[in-house]
Amino acid sequence: MATVIQRRKAVSLNPLKSSAPLGAALAYLGIEKGIPLFHGAQGCTSFALVLSVRHFKEAIPLQTTAMDEVATVLGGASNLEEALLTLARRMKPGFIGVATTALVETRGEDSEGDLRLIMERNPELAETKVVLASTPDYAGALEDGWASATTAIINRLVEPWSPSIRSFQQINVLPGVHQTPVDIEALREIIESFGFYPVILPDVSYSLDGHIAESWVPTSLGGTSLSEIANMARAVHTIAIGEHMRTPADTLTAMTGVPATVFPTLTGLEPSDRLVSLLARLSLKPVPGRLRRHRAQLVDAMLDGHFHFGGKKVAIAADPDLLFSLSQFFAGMGASVVTAIASTGGNRNLQRIPVENVIVGDLMDLEDGAAQAGADLLVTHSHGRQAAARLGVPLMRVGFPIFDRLGVSHEETVGYRGTRSLIFRVANQFLSESHEHRPEDFGSAIPAPVITTEEGRHASGTFATH
């Protein structure tokens, strides 16, 4: 069991984590016709907007209540009300997700109470669903904001179970923030192959997958519909991915009575087998031949790839559930995780990471640990590129943000097919760093060949001729 060490620094020189409000905004973008709204200063929104646009290479409809000095002193309720009314009148959203920032949280405002009063005295907001999540910048990171926003959506929009609700062939899915749009699309295909109808919350597989809409849309381009959210009590089971999604899953179970299973990861052969076994048991159907073939392809990829993983030293820095998933993947393929840096603590999966110590720190801790252990590969987001350059070690980009590569929304890592793709991606990374050895690579370790001629004389390094 790993020991979790919380570093106490006066300043973080190269931060690892992204803020909780940004995680909430990404979750809100997974709701159909949704708009995320930061309740705070313009600077908080601008920073999150830049990171999101650079990562997804898409237009992000992130808005702000734009609190100034006066609002900071007197209170931001009027700013929140004005922002909601402006958005409702001009953009006609079906959903607005409010995420509080450190500014209003530090001031101690009752944002929930303010929102209730605003909704009561403004009938024109009745057609818009408004959800507020408490996400101060100084507490938690991307995973925490995503989970808080999902929990708030469930509390506000899901209709409780009643005897009139019949059970349909529906499966609820609560993906983690580390799932890419194509990961969610792959999960949908797996679930549908057993005859189920998946309701995914939040669903960024269409809103952030990178496509050109037929016409300009001021809100999110797609996502979970409000009617699907309201009817989540109709499901036969809920699947949550990542420990940070346990609270939303428990909240949904308490409201609807739908049992839930929390998967720590869906990357790897064993986790994929567990998912498929659960779906087969719930559906009372055999595993489709397509999935059996994908499993066979994964096993073959593991056989082909393990030669390139064995003996490699890997240093990883990521949000806790992504860190756990990648650590289990590398260890299962024969590599050694020599350094593990988490953005935040408190996640129970951190203790299960196959390393002696897990440090809650920043990218400087990653660089120091990788240098000390002689790591062969750094695994983190794009802000780790400077550390990789200084160490002369290749960087594999994962998580958020990745702004110096294209196609990050289409990198699949879940299920048999996604794990197979990840194996090839990492193995090819190792192969690209290898090269053909030449005699000069070994210096003086190998002496020059000595050839004896017919006259008994010796020629060093060349052939003697008559």
Question: Explain this structure to me?
Answer:
Pfam families: Oxidored_nitro. The protein is an alpha/beta fold and 466 residues long. Among the domains are: 20-139, Rossmann fold, CATH 3.40.50; 170-285, Rossmann fold. It has 16 helices and 16 strands. The chain has helices at 20-28, 42-56, 69-74, 77-90, 102-107, 111-121, 142-157, 181-192, 226-230, 246-256, 269-283, 289-309, 320-332, 363-373, 385-391, 415-433, and strands at residues 3-6, 34-39, 63-64, 95-100, 129-133, 170-174, 197-200, 237-241, 260-263, 313-318, 336-342, 357-360, 377-380, 395-397, 450-452, 458-460. It has a 6-stranded parallel β-sheet, with helices on both faces. Helix 1 (20-28) packs across helix 7 (142-157), helix 7 (142-157) packs parallel to helix 10 (246-256) and helix 12 packs parallel to helix 16 (415-433). The longest helix is centred in the middle third of the chain and has 21 residues, at 289-309. The relative contact order is 0.13. Residues 444-466 have low confidence and may be disordered.
